[in-house]
Amino acid sequence: MIGRGLVLLLVGSLGGCMQATLAPPSNASLTPRDRQLLAHAPYAPASIPEPFRRHIVDYTRKELPGTILVDTNARYLYFVLPGGKAIRYGVTVGEEALAWSGVATVGRTAEWPDWIPTAEIQARLGPYPKRVAGGPANPLGARALYLYEGNKDTLYRIHGTNQPEYIGQAISSGCIRLTNEDIIDLVDRVKVGAIVVVLPPGRSA
């Protein structure tokens, strides 16, 4: 018998069948500010399909614990744990022509970050203000991981979202989006300097 709402299921990924355990909801990482802002989020709660909710899964690739791997094809982000396990989060990814792929490091993290739209975003989707203050209406959401190649900012982010209904889909810009609850959980685990591997479209983990 599985307690506290844990669900065991078999899913095909990472080269074969694996056991995936649905992680129980946890608010342990939420700060008082998080609770206040999320309680007044200006978007409707979304029902995330079970495959894209947070799971603990078997992990057979060779990345070291503490690494992040993004499978853009499958719409998953993996945070690698010791012992052949990983936390798998459902994500929204960018459309194929707008997606970024490669290997980077986490240069810094931010809590409820401001958003500064790039010139490309302004031209394609704007006009936006030059800076959008952090908060639940901000498209970067509750946290952001800033990815660097060496000392250079790639301008690619892993961040929260104010559109949780799109988790599991490919839309708009090339950044990776998690629910605000999941990005808070992820950033609480990730260390600055961690390796991030983003697989290109067409290649699955």
What does this structure look like?
The protein is built from three helices and eleven strands, in the order ββαβββββαβββαβ. The chain is mostly beta strands. The chain has an eleven-stranded mixed beta sheet, covered by helices on one side.
In short:
This protein is mainly beta.
What's the structural blueprint in terms of helices and strands?
Elements: E1 8-13, E2 16-22, H1 32-39, E3 55-58, E4 68-71, E5 76-81, E6 85-90, E7 102-111, H2 119-125, E8 143-149, E9 152-159, E10 176-177, H3 180-189, E11 195-199
Parallel strand pairs: 4-11, 9-10
Antiparallel strand pairs: 1-2, 2-3, 3-6, 4-5, 5-6, 7-8, 7-11, 8-9
Coarse morphology = globular
Overall pLDDT metric: 85
Q: Helical segment tally?
A: 3
- The fraction of residues assigned to DSSP E strands is 25-35%
What portion of residues is helical? 10-25%
For this entry, what is the oligomeric state of its chains? Answer: single chain
Strand neighbour order, sheet with most strands: 1-2-3-6-5-4-11-7-8-9-10
Largest sheet: 11 strands, mixed
Straight-line distance between termini: 31 Å
Structural class by secondary-structure content: mainly beta
Rounded radius of gyration (Å): 16 Å
H/E series: EEHEEEEEHEEEHE
Number of strands: 11
* Model regions low in confidence, pLDDT < 50 over at least 5 residues: 1-17
Question: Which properties best describe this structure?
Answer:
single chain, 205 residues, mainly beta, eleven-stranded mixed beta sheet, 11 strands, 32% strand, globular, disordered N terminus
